[in-house]
Structures
1.
Amino acid sequence: MQAARRQVLFGFGAAAAAAATPSILSAQALKRSPLAAPSVLRGPSLTSGFDGVRRVSLHNLHTGDKFDEVYWEKGAYVPDALASAQHALRDWRNGEEHFMDPKLFDVLHGVSQKIGSNQPFQIISGYRSPNTNAMLHARSEGVASHSQHMLGKASDIRVDGVELTHLHQAALSLQAGGVGYYPVSNFVHVDVARVRTWQGV
């Protein structure tokens, strides 16, 4: 977990890490980091209803790992929580971890607010290593060769007790990145790249 936390701090950038307290990264430090961009909580629909604390609940279906923590409070991301979430979203095929863009957790938090469910997001896919993505791409044209999963910017999700169509519409309403609808495979893809939408199988 220490390695995961180092990845989180490194992902925020040296300037951000230097300005951070041991447990909480300041919002001002984040603004100076390479991740600071207008796309963080970019739309009113994503920020509305936030009360200063953001929590997300995850359940990796492949590893059994669960995460249910506050990852943002008092105007700052919490690196230890982000490191734990990053571990839960690791490539389950080989155990590799990668820095996960905090904006992804903002999107998941926003979706959870929209659907009004306390159930965890069931994670079908989080981070994918280049080797894993290449293997999946060779098997299916539906897997992008330069997937956002490889950048730590995407997750494939579903929520127990929530209709997939409802989950899909909630993600679309945020206008916060890419949203893919996979009704046969029973998941919704969300990422924090440019706003776009598509349907798979």
Note: The beta strands are 53-60, 66-73, 76-77, 121-125, 154-159, 178-182, 187-191, 196-199.
2.
Amino acid sequence: MTEEVDRCKKALEIAAKGETVSIVSSGDAGVYGMAGLVMELAATSPEFSKVAIEVVPGITAVSAAASIVGAPLTHDFAVISLSDLMTPWEVIAKRLRCAAEGDFVIALYNPKSKKRKEHIIKAREIIEQHRSGTTPVAVVTSAYRDGQTVAISNLRDFTGAEIGMLSVVIIGNSQSILKDNKIVTPRGYSSKYADSF
């Protein structure tokens, strides 16, 4: 993580001298990416605050993963990182509880690492207090990259899949269904426009 700070500071130093600099992040730079860090650092220095910063959007890992497994995000959803490097586990657990209570589809970033193996189990236990064990779940690793894997399962069993730092876990809400091995979260069209269905 300190390398990220050094990298962003160096980019700002070069940009402050009038050069054009790019910082490349995977996914979208504004979603768990470098855009926030660059802007935080720019705000700490009069020299850096004069640098014009442009954030170019990308495709988030959750959007890429969702497109592979169907349409799980077509209603309200929450994205929560299970990494406790900068956010205490107590805060993460509260966010999981609130999202589960609110019946959001929940997407988990950084679900498991070599050192942090239990958070995904704890997350499942928290969510199971508010969802059926048969709720559809997708685990997508390396979406649209070499080595892409997809596992469709349910809340009760998904932790048996291969899960790592390049995985995104998408947990359906109470209305999500599994159809032809694709997860769909209805938005409500069938009840609102029943005559058209």
Note: Residues 2-16 form the longest helix (15 residues).
3.
Amino acid sequence: MAEPYRSTPIFDEITLPAALRANHQTKEGVWGIIRVLEGELNLTYVEPHAEQVLTPGAPGLVAPEQVHYVTALGPMRMQVDFYHEPPSL
């Protein structure tokens, strides 16, 4: 199983950066796994449009250069792990 080369700090519904709440994307060759530690988080893929509610048991996968944003659904804690190869969920 691939190991992340970097992880974000743990964010909550208050500290979740504005950049993650707006359209953004990973770089070429970089996959992300959004892991919810507590609560729920909505992951929205922009093109093609799709939404997924993330929970501690259901992380979200972001492919390289995939435009997306997240929305806190109440109190939550989350972290993003970044990989140079496709990770397993």
Note: The helical segments are 18-21.
